[in-house]
Amino acid sequence: MLLEEFEILCGDAGIGSPTVFERQALACCAKYGKRDLIFKITPHDSLIPGAVIPSLLVKRPSIKQSQGSSPARIILLDELLLEQAHAFLASLLVKPRPSYRSCKVIGLNGNARDDLRHIGKLPELIVSTPRRLIDHIRRDNLSLAGVANLTVVRTLREDDEETRSFDQDVMFIHSKLSRSAVVHVFTPNLDESEDLQDLTKHPKIVERSEWHIFDNELFMYQVPRPSAEQIIAVLCSRSASKSAVLVKDSSEKHIMKKALSTQIFLKDVQVYIPEEFHTDSGGGASVCAVYGVSVPVLQELLHQETGPLLQFPQIIVAGGPEHASFLQTIQEKYNMKTTKQSLPADQEVISGKIKMLLDDVKQYKHPEELAELRRMIRKNVPFHLRSYLSAYLLRDALGEAPQRKTAQVSEDENMVTLFVSIGKNRKVYPKDLTKLFTEQGKISDSDIGSIRVLDNYSFINVSRDSAQGVIEIMDNMKFRGRNITVSFAKKKTS
Fold this sequence. Notes:
Blueprint: H1 2-12, H2 20-31, E1 37-40, H3 47-50, H4 53-57, E2 73-76, H5 79-90, E3 103-105, H6 116-120, E4 125-128, H7 130-138, E5 149-153, H8 160-175, E6 182-187, E7 204-206, E8 217-222, H9 228-237, E9 243-246, H10 250-260, E10 270-272, E11 287-291, H11 295-301, E12 314-319, H12 321-333, E13 337-341, H13 346-363, H14 367-380, H15 383-398, E14 415-420, H16 430-439, E15 448-453, E16 458-463, H17 464-474, E17 478-479, E18 482-483, E19 486-488
Parallel strand pairs: 1-6, 1-7, 2-4, 2-5, 3-4, 5-6, 8-12, 8-13, 9-10, 9-11, 11-12
Antiparallel strand pairs: 14-16, 14-19, 15-16, 17-18
């Protein structure tokens, strides 16, 4: 759910393809939101919105606000980043979604009085420069007693004195917080600041190399000869409508594209070969499926520092036994969730397609059209037939009907049907009859076929060899206080 809100927020801000940094900052704050964090960053990281998004979405333990005059979260930036933060927040919808925090940016001009109208409304999140915030603290315009989270985005400047002043101001603000407040620091090099050494208490330090593998999941499907159809089934079962597929060569790419052209659900899937796969591949997709790619190529694509595969939160690898041993290596080398999977059943694939249809319904740009069709259905289709109409239309949308579960061996010549004088009215279900016949009739599960339970009686298929013995033992026996009849059925019922 958090990732979905993140994607919606990025879309509202015009961010079509969130960076790895932005995704992983959210993942880190969600996972370790209750403890201090230090994020190592580089000059190339998109600090805005990367450092702002978690504070807009991640829920953290609330601290009782002091006399209703304290924000819950504070982000401290320098003047340049403050302008970028303001532009980012302004790019969101005018009417914020319920999941967004109420937030205000102060310190954009030289007049502190202009900030009072924002502070007076007591937003949940305040974004400011340290100096402007200290100015309001000293004027008693703002209390920090109820701040639950302080986020510091620290950049190194050419003027060391300016950097030192920033750090000292942050330390002063931190001294005004409660002891239970959580601190998140984004910094190129914490060692260069003696003042900030005591800012955090036993923090979780996230090295830059960890950004790529912090919240990834690797799923291994052991398939000796994986095919395009199998990969499509896996993607459908996971409702991965927006995903990427990596294949070994151009011929496999052509096969995969041809198979995808018949799919109405996987419309946003991109196909690549290793030579054209890089860190910008995938178009913001969260899932990448890999098949037919050799282990050495996979090792390069999953390299801890430069591997482009690590930009995807979910990685699916389909391969043979040699890939299974590679999975073990990945488990030992990376802090990555790894899971062995079996190919999905037809029902799982259909369930995944239904979820993708529901997502399309939720994101449809003209809900008034759906509302009109819904009124027409309510007017013209009786209530008891609406679910059947949905099933009928769903069958056409899927392009296939779910395979019906067939009776085990009801038509088998080695089976005969027995009549049993108990049914649903006596709260009897197939599992009850199976247990009754195996325990009292002295037969095994393999001797029992299909079971049909009606209101007052039931029919059960048993092996021809054991049928007569079952009747002799069970006919006229007591079950739940009454004698029951067990005999050969007079006609075929299945």
